[in-house]
Amino acid sequence: MFCSRYLITTFSSIVFFPIFLVFLESASAQTKFSGEHLAENLTSRNLTPQNLTPQNLTLAAQTSPKARLFVQSPNSAADLPPENKVDQSSETEVNQSTKTNNTQSPETEINQTVTPEVDRSVETEVGQPLKPSQNKSPETGVNQSPQPDVNKSSATEVNQSLNSEDKALKEVMAEFDALPGDVSFLVKEGESILVQLNSTEPLAVASAFKLAILKTLKSEIDLNKRSWNKIVTIQPDWKSLPSGILHGWEDGSPLTLKSLATLMISVSDNTATDTLINLLGRQAIEVTSPRNRPFLTTRELFVLKSPQNRMLLNRYRQGTETQRQSLLPEIAKLPLPTISEFEEKNPVAIDVEWFFSAQELCGIMTEVGNLPLMSINPGMVNPKDWEKVAFKGGSEPGVLNLTSWLQGKNGKNYCVVATWNNKDAPLEQSKFSKLYKGVLSVLANRK
Q1: Which of 200, 274, 372, 424 is 20 to 30 A distant from 335 in Cα terms?
Q2: Using an 8 Å Cβ cutoff, are 372 and 115 in contact?
Q3: CA nearest neighbour of 75 among 85, 83, 67, 65
Q4: Which homologous superfamily does the CATH classification assign to the domain defined by 12-444?
Q5: Residue 111: is it exposed, middle or buried by C-beta count within 10 angstroms (0-12/13-18/19+)?
Q6: What's the burial of 154, exposed, middle or buried (CB within 10 Å: 0-12/13-18/19+)?
Q7: Domain ranges for the chain
Q8: What is the pLDDT of residue 165?
Q9: Per residue in 11-47, pLDDT tens?
Q10: What is the model's pLDDT at position 163?
Q11: What is the pLDDT of residue 123?
């Protein structure tokens, strides 16, 4: 979920348990989630409120040794992700000097329009809190558009063409299908499904749930109910565990909605995530994600999954939707757990999570993928292979999700979603990420 060891993929996206939230458990010392490493690089570059600009945030994503989700540490400069051009938007965010003795509070915010050649990416997580020295940290919505009627139980290919690319996709699908536990997999080219496996089955997705928050925020801005430049302040009750950086900022620090959204996606900042949930309201997000009621904050998930609160967790798991809603005030009164509480490497109650199907995630990506903030963290692809890239992932022990929206050099758009749940054992993340990366390579060369 939100483990400190995970970047919050599950919670990687949320940063929850050391291995849970955020959530990608490191398959090895060399394979970690990009959102997590981006957060680490923010610290290593001494990014503070005074210099937290879109250019610096993008540079951190590009030059971090592990700036991309599930990518091995580079052995040389040649292995580092390619630099993207940064087009600074004219929209300026908070540019005020609020000098304080606490260097963690923001004086200037993210000038949010970072437009690298790759117009999307960012992986954040919700599953597992990152230890302070690591700066690590610990996501489900329903797309209202009609979904194709696909066979959930078998690996059905919708595209019957048997060229070499289709055969390669079919072989990868078979390997996904052979993994223990529950797996969903979907590859779309435009509106056409190239291959799918259980793509309508809702599974826990960890920090990928943050896409539903972004969709809700964008919808309200499109309706002129809110503005990207609206300034809000960080409230102490809204702070969560890492991943991210805002948990360490001074209470009352000002940020724009654009800055919060950028941090939520690019470094899977859990405090930015919870701030947006509180501002938008659960009910508004539940319109996008009706299955996930009540729509939990990352803080609430951390409290529930803390080893200190097992009885409360059991009551929540066994409760109806109404009973779960009634437990929220009790959860709110409990203190935020410490990072040291989330050292468990085995899955913990992955039925308490955010649930989305692959079809739903593709639907959400279609609506938010073009936002410039989605380009900061490209995930597992080489941005030079694509015209545009958008990425979000999530992980915690027993949960792993990778979601990408891409525009190819051939002018076609692709959506690739893979989710893996196993309530009984840790996941072999390196194998899963290798399969996913193979799919992206096939699509990059597609005519």
Answers
A1: 424
A2: yes
A3: 65
A4: DD-peptidase/beta-lactamase superfamily (3.40.710.10)
A5: buried
A6: exposed
A7: 12-444
A8: 87
A9: 333 333 333 333 332 333 333 334 444 444 554 445 5
A10: 75
A11: 35
Structure tokens at 183: 């797996």
Cα angle value 62/51/389 (rounded, 5°): 30
User: What per-residue confidence (pLDDT) applies to 164?
Assistant: 85
Cα separation, 164 vs 162, whole angstroms? 7
Tokens of 26: 């490191």
Rg of the chain on CA atoms, in Å = 20
pLDDT tens digits, 274-286: 999 999 999 999 9
Instruction: Name 109's Cβ contacts closer than 8 Å, sequence gap at least 6.
Output: 49, 52, 93, 94, 95, 254, 255, 256, 258, 259
- Which pTM value belongs to this model? 0.73
Report the 3 state secondary structure along the chain.
Answer: CCCCCCCCCCCEEECCCCCCCCCCCCCECCEECHHHHHHHHHHHCCCCCCCCCHHHHHHHHHHCCCCCCCECCCCCHHHCCCCCCCCECCCCCCECCCCCCCCCCCCECCCCCECCCCCCECCCEECCCCCCCCCCCCCCCCCCCCCCCCCCCCCCCCCCCCCHHHHHHHHHHHHHHCCCCEEEEEEEECCEEEEEECCCCCEECHHHHHHHHHHHHHHHHHCCCCCCCCEEECCHHHCCCCCCCHHHCCCCCEEEHHHHHHHHHHCCCHHHHHHHHHHHCHHHHHHHCCCCCCCCCHHHHHHHHCHHHHHHHHHHHHCCHHHHHHHHHHHHHCCCCCHHHCCCCCCCCCCCCCEECHHHHHHHHHHHCCCHHHECCCCCCCHHHEEEEEEEEEEECCEEEEEEEEEECCCCEEEEEEEEECCCCCCCHHHHHHHHHHHHHHHHCCC
301-356 tens-digit pLDDT: 999 999 999 999 999 999 999 999 999 999 999 999 999 999 888 999 999 999 99
| Segments of the chain scoring below 70 in pLDDT | 1-162
Those residues whose C-beta lies under 8 Å from the C-beta of residue 433, and which sit 6 or more positions away, are: 27, 31, 69, 70, 380, 402
What is residue 57's predicted lDDT score, i.e. its pLDDT?
Answer: 57
Kindly compute the dihedral angle of the four CA atoms of residues 313, 315, 320, 325, in this order, to the nearest 10 degrees. -70
